[in-house]
Design goal:
191 residues, Rossmann fold, 8 helices, 5 strands
Length: 191
C-alpha cells in the first residue's frame, strides 16, 4: 500500500533557470518576478538554504576559507535537489546564487540534469550593484564589487549575460525570457 496514492510527478518543467550576478545585481528580485510569470514555478533562493544551517555555518567572505567554500557547494547541491524535485513535478525552478568560479558553475551543470539548465548572469556593473545594495533592505556591509571582474574573467564566455543597469525588473524578466526561449504561456497550458 502506497503512503501517497497521488502521483507527485507529471510532465516535467521545460527547464530550469540559474540566475547569477554579484550581490546587488538584482538576482533575488528578478528570480521572484521571473517565477511569477509562470503558472507553475518555484523560486529557490540559495542564500536561504545557507541560512538553514543552525550551527557551524560559514558564509562566503573575501578571505579564503575552506569550510565556507565547501558550504558553497553544499548549498548548490541542496538547491539542485530542490530544483530537480520541482522540475519533475512540473514546476519551473528559478535558482538565484552568486556563481563566480567555473568549478561552481560546472557543479550546477553536472548536478541538475533532469531538465535543461539556462544560465543567466545579471551584469549591471559593480557601481550600480553597490548603489542598489546600499538602498535595499538586505544591506551588506562588505563591498563585493571586486567579484564582478572575477566573474567576467572566469565566466565571461558562459551562459547568457544581461546588462540590467538601466532595465526595470519587468524589462529584465522580458530579456531573460527572450534569451532563454522559455515561454510562460506554453508552460501554463501543460499544467
Amino acid at each position: 500500500m502506497s503512503l501517497n496514492p497521488t502521483p507527485l510527478d507529471r510532465e516535467p518543467a521545460p527547464g530550469a533557470v540559474l540566475l547569477s550576478g554579484i550581490p546587488g545585481s538584482g538576482k533575488s528580485t528578478v528570480a521572484a518576478a521571473l517565477a511569477a510569470r509562470f503558472g507553475a514555478s518555484a523560486h529557490v533562493e540559495v542564500d536561504a538554504l545557507q541560512g538553514m544551517i543552525v550551527s557551524g555555518g560559514q558564509w562566503p567572505s573575501p578571505t579564503p576559507a575552506p569550510e565556507a567554500d565547501r558550504q558553497i557547494f553544499l548549498r548548490a547541491r541542496n538547491a539542485c535537489l530542490l530544483a530537480g524535485s520541482f522540475a519533475r513535478a512540473g514546476f519551473l525552478p528559478v535558482l538565484d546564487d552568486v556563481v563566480v568560479r567555473s568549478s561552481h558553475l560546472d557543479f550546477y551543470r553536472e548536478t541538475l540534469t533532469s531538465v535543461p539548465l539556462h544560465v543567466v548572469f545579471l551584469a549591471p556593473g559593480p557601481m550600480v550593484a553597490w548603489q542598489r545594495n546600499r538602498t535595499r533592505a538586505k544591506v551588506l556591509d562588505i563591498d563585493w564589487s571586486p567579484l564582478d571582474e572575477a566573474m567576467r574573467t572566469e565566466l565571461g564566455g558562459e551562459g547568457i549575460w544581461i546588462d540590467n543597469a538601466t532595465l526595470t525588473v519587468a524589462e529584465t524578466v522580458d530579456a531573460v525570457l527572450a534569451a532563454t526561449g522559455l515561454t510562460p504561456a506554453a508552460h501554463l497550458s501543460s499544467v
